[in-house]
Amino acid sequence: MKKRIKIPFKNAVGMLGGYAKDRIVEQIRLIAFIIIYLVAFQMIILRVPLSNALSLAGGIGLVVFGLAFFLEGLMLGLMPLGERVGVKLPVKFGILFIAIFGIFLGFGSTVAEPAISSLRTAGAGVTAWDAPMLYMLLERNTQALVYSIGAGVGIAVALGMFRFYYQLSIKPFIYTIIPIALALSVLLSFDETLRSIIGLAWDSGAVTTGAVTVPLVLAMGIGVSRAASKNKASGGGFGVIMLASALPVLSVLILGISLRSTSPEITTEDHFFSKENREYALKLFDDESAILNHAFTRGSEIGRKSFFADDELYHNKLNQLANNPKVLKELLGSMSFDAWLSKRASDSERKYIASVKTEPLDVISGVPVSTVLKQESKIALQAVIPLTLLLLLVLLLFLREKLRYKDEFFLGIAFTLVGMILLTSGIRLGLGPLGSQVGAQLPRAFSKEAKFIDSKMITPFDTTIVFSTIALDGTKKQFFNLTEESGTKVVEFEQKNYDKVNNIYEYVIKRPPLLGPNLTILGILLVLLFAFGMGFGATMAEPALNALGITVEELTVGAIKRSQILFVVSLGVGIGLVLGVLRILYDIPLIWLILPGYLILLPLTYFSEDEFSSMAWDCGGVTTGPVTVPLVLAMGLSIGGELNVIDGFGILGCASLMPIITVLTFGLITRARQKRIVNASIENDDE
Amino acid sequence: MNRDNAKSEKSFSPSRAVWKTQLDKGTHAPHRVSRITCIVNKLFSDKIVEQVFKLGISSIFDETGRTAREFITPRSLGLPGSTIKLESTPVDVFRFTVQRKQARMVMDYLVRVGNFNIPGRGTIFSQDLIEFTKKEPKFIDFDGVDGVDDVAHDIPYLQKLSYVICVLSVPGSGEKLAKVALDLGICVPLITHGISNDLRDQMGLIRITIPPEKEVVHLITPEQDTESIIKLLLEEGRLNKPGRGFIYQTPISYGLIDTRMRVGRQQYAASMEQIIAAIDQLKGNTMWRKRLDTSDVNSIDQQLWLPNDNCEISVISDEDTEDLLKLAGMNAGATGSTVSRLKIITSGAKEQKASSLVQSTFSVSAEKTNDVVDALLEHSAVGIKASERLQVLDSPAAYIHTF
């Protein structure tokens, strides 16, 4: 055996430097588009300066390093481990053991990964009276929802291994599962109560397979496929992600059907909060204070008044809300007082609070970086360690195989953990807030009127500072000069905002429409363009998709490049987001988008090669990950909130559907080009 | 190294020496076989596999690869001229062995059913080698095969060809060399992937900075031009720098080569490839083609040419014995190995649940060949498992730069 080569320190530093530089530059290249896009859109099109630019920049820096570490960690540690387990399993054990292991793996990874929090974020606007079933699943029966999704993923992984073991084509699975899911969705759309969970079901399928699960399950599938297959039908390892995205749709729909009888019926807000309905309302909440919290955080003045049924009690509570931090926390939870005033409070409530508020309440200005890092570290450990230990256990104890390149493996796991912490922290501190800033301004693009943002009380107000102006058409207006921290500006004086008795003027800050009241269609097009660009850019940076792209390039020996896959999938997600936004803007029932989409997919799948079909359907499952989801939800909630849409579900489902179409189409085009070589050779044959 | 030396030393064959030595030992019986390689577009893989099984050949080794061609398309927006883009086509590389005396018949049959005589359909060639395996390839009864009567036996195969294999360490350099091959009009290059950890294993954790994946570029060149082509490839791929890869060649007995290097609009009634292919067929060889002039390529260090009587030793084994075999081979004198992933496709009702297979390829100098073969035979399951085998093939030239 040759002696170990001693690399001089200087050379080693050079090698490490080059290695690190390549990876970081690659991630900068992938994430640059979405960052520049969001910043440019905010500053040039929406004409709103970025706030907390330094914090955003820091967060984005964390995202870049996080992605670099995470992907490298996957390549060094998790994926080789998954592939080795996959290769050895069919040799030493039968299909029963493999399937049981698959169930554990799928279920465990779902419970460990924080995908459910994305669903709850998407359902942040869900109201218990408009969508009781949906609210019940998201807030009341959360464990049941998690377990049903986990069961779906577990069965999916087991089925996937079964498919590789017996070298079955993916197509029969697609033609069975998808039509059943579609049929159930259509059926549920006729039930007023169950209709609301259709979006949740399809979005559950989209979010389940996270950044750690995807590469692991993919690598394992490749290993099992390699070991077990003698022909090409099994698809080379792809197809499990598709199953893990489709089966949870079924499991959530079935869960909804099973809980139908326990759900209260849809009712009005007024009736829901009334004392007569209290018994039914308590099916969805632990106690009355939880119901009251819901009335404040998601309801309107109607609901709150109905809860108290007595004006004095109601006003007392408003008084306490304005002046007592403890009551504020009880009533609003994590929502800030300013956010409540601008989004939930009615004009009369705002005026009342302004009149009774004695002193400003302490504003919590955001979570410190150390807290974010601590929280994300906990989530990362939870996502990575149990899965890794499970696989190691199987490899070392059951398969009795040694770990190759131990040092590389442990380094890879460390990289994965560090990468995930940096990535998710960076998203929370940088990319997410950037997306929220842009998302919050987005509705201006299609709003016809100015929208209330905030109000400030000026007291005592000296009316002598008010001056008049006259326009060319003779219209008179009154203004006054207001001095704030940022400087002095001229503000329009409105008589209705002046309280003569108390000498208080309510200065209302409104968000003007971006393009004026008559250019709403252009505004909508702008929003759609934004959605497309954001979907495209965010998807390019998705780590799970990058891992899939690398795998595709390796398996096809470079015939299909990673960059091609990234481009085609990102294009699909962009188109999917446009559809998702259209759904929210025009309140299109989700089934009208999903059904035609999948009906196009089924014949496309039929005409595609088996290997390509598996890969294309997997592409749909990996798109919605830690980079795309927060941005998409920020945009969806903002637009939905503007239009008072019940929930933001369906966008992620649309974002998963379209990439499958674009990838299958790409596959057909590629095959046509291959056939062109062959057909050209037949035409030129001189026989 | 020059042609004259190669000619005079042709009578010495390291693989024949191995055959004699191993025959005398009697532990593992060597067989003199022909290995037939078919490089086929994936669209036709199933058909070729079916036809091979029809002949009674029970197992085929399949490696995935891609071929690179230039696609000529008109410029968009009606602008004059055309654009040339390098595009890849996924292919299957099928390899199987047959008895030497039947190789020609098998090739004739496959050329007919696979239309390998048509440019763009693929490449097929035969190489004579020594194989150690559990059973000698069985005798094929052509009388029982449908369609064998329609097979022509006067196919003008090309003779005097070399199979040049370039193992490249730098990612992306495969396409560069493929472009060189296409520009020179050599052949349609095949690119596969391999893994080589020999250098990495000696470096500790810093090895993560060197990717283990290698790109392997396979070219089929006229024998008289091989040396010049290798020199050009060494310069283009900068393989004269340490750690960037190596090149070696093995002889091809005869074959039909895919010459469809360009697809798309052509200016004349026949493309250059069609003309070259037609003349090759008329002449029955490539000797008529103008020799490449590489006298200006001086940068190659002559000391780094390995002696011109090397061997390529390939071991097909289960993946879990890969490390053991590599260690055994290197202890016996091999400089290292390149590992490729293979699938074995078997016919009949046999349920062969094999683990994935790998092919470990060693390039070894003549004096070490017997030792390496002994070591590999000792540590492998050749002779026990039907799927495992060891093949020894002469390699007249190799170039490698070491630390």
Main attributes of the structure:
heterodimer; A: 687 residues; mainly alpha; three-stranded antiparallel sheet; 27 helices; globular; B: 403 residues; alpha+beta
Contiguous uncertain segments of 5+ residues of chain B: 1-10, 351-355
The number of distinct helices of chain A, counting runs of at least 4 residues, comes to 27
Residue-averaged pLDDT of chain A: 84
Biggest sheet features of chain A: 3 strands, antiparallel
Share of β-strand residues of chain A? 5-15%
Average pLDDT score of chain B: 82
Query: Total helix count of chain B?
Result: 9
State Rg of chain A.
28 Å
- Helix-strand pattern of chain B: HHEHEEHEEHEEHEEHEEHEEHEE
Strands of chain B, count: 15
Which regions of chain A have little confidence, pLDDT < 50, spanning 5+ residues?
none
Gross morphology of chain A: globular
**How much strand content do the residues of chain B show?**
25-35%
Helix content of chain A: 55-70%
Distance from N terminus to C terminus of chain A (CA atoms, Å) equals 57 Å
* Class from secondary-structure proportions of chain A: mainly alpha
Q: State the end-to-end CA separation of chain B.
A: 22 Å
Helicity level of chain B, as a percent range? 10-25%
